Amino acid sequence: MFFSRSKSVVGLDVGSSAVKLVELKERRVGEYNLEKVGLEPLSPEAIVDGSIMDSSLVVEAINRLADESGVRGTNYATSLSGHSVIIKKIQVPVMSEDELAESIQWEAEQYIPFDINDVRLDYTVFPSSEPARETMEVLLVAVKRDKVNDYVSVISQAGKTPVVVDVDAFAVQNAYEANYDIDPHEVVALVNMGAGVTTINILARGSSVFWRDISIGGNQFTEALQREYSLSFDHAERLKRGEQVQGCSPAEAKAVLEAVAGEMAAEIQKTFDFYAATSADDRVTRLLLSGGCALTPSLREVLQDRFGVSTELMNPLRRVNYKESDFDSQWLEAVAPMLSVSVGLAMRKVGD
Q1: pTM
Q2: Cα distances (angstroms) measured from residue 31 to each of 24, 173, 321, 336, 344
């Protein structure tokens, strides 16, 4: 289910602070037209720590978004992240597809820190050019069953058909691969920063080699501003976006935002250090930032200074065609980094 690609789907990213929706039309292989796009803010009490606490708020947001954007498709793809998602690259003896299908649950039990009966499991085999190999690499993905059921349920309650459940890291990778030239000599970190979780996917030689989700995101910036200036959540969010609120200017907020950005950089550094200690590949040479948190003022500059490598906002619509008469191009450019997951999901297919 996680690797499923063929009938088009609507990409639905249900985040802690907003729901994002994208519908694409594939003109030819790897070439897309943007058909519909929308973004609907979500009340902070709807989803807490990646868990749906108020499904009715999420269902209402999905319905409003579908109505306002005019999306026609009813087959939806969504994705998950956080501590309920486990991604592992494992080595198993060379075997046939049927043998692997029979043994994968037993193999997975050795690597999954949950009861195997409580997870939804999927896997894919990495291709290899070695003719006489004794083992093969398998990418294993396990997600808590109740988490999958919650997200599938809100889509069904909204009258749509959930057909694909992916993970955020791979959805962002889909969008990246469709919009950027892959340099086999680069080690690229795709850093998707949501409100509550930051997902890091490191690519070397054009392939994904390391993944980690860390529990830090846009909410930390908002909460720091609330504490420092005694602001409401809404006012702190506006200040974080660079707006003036209640006599507090964005210039005054800069020091607070940079302090939290430093904490985030330290967490990302831990991930890079662990990657470097467990991999023979070169160090990360480029950062591509996505997600709503990536738009926080000064964050990109702080990360670039910290890591000393090219750091830029990812544009998942960079090579996606659209009619300028159908969309506000300035708005699209402004929100594009927030759409990386939903664009990547919209590139998936039903049942492939």
Answers
A1: 0.93
A2: 10, 16, 8, 18, 13
Tokens of 149: 């059921």
Determine which helix (DSSP H) or strand (DSSP E) holds 183, and give its type and residue range: none
Q: Report how far apart the first and last C-alpha atoms of the chain are (Å, whole number).
A: 10
| Mean pLDDT, the chain cut into blocks of 10 residues (352 residues total) | 65 95 91 96 89 95 95 94 90 91 90 90 84 86 94 97 95 97 93 95 90 93 95 94 89 94 96 88 92 95 96 97 93 96 94 61
Least Cα distance to 220 among 258, 250, 247 occurs for 258
How many Cα neighbours within 13 Å face the side chain of 231? 23
Give every CB contact of residue 230 below 8 A, 6+ residues apart in sequence.
Answer: none
**φ/ψ (deg, to 5) at 116:** -60, -25
| Domains parsed from the chain with CATH numbers | 1-84+146-179+318-352 (3.30.420.40), 181-314 (3.30.420.40)
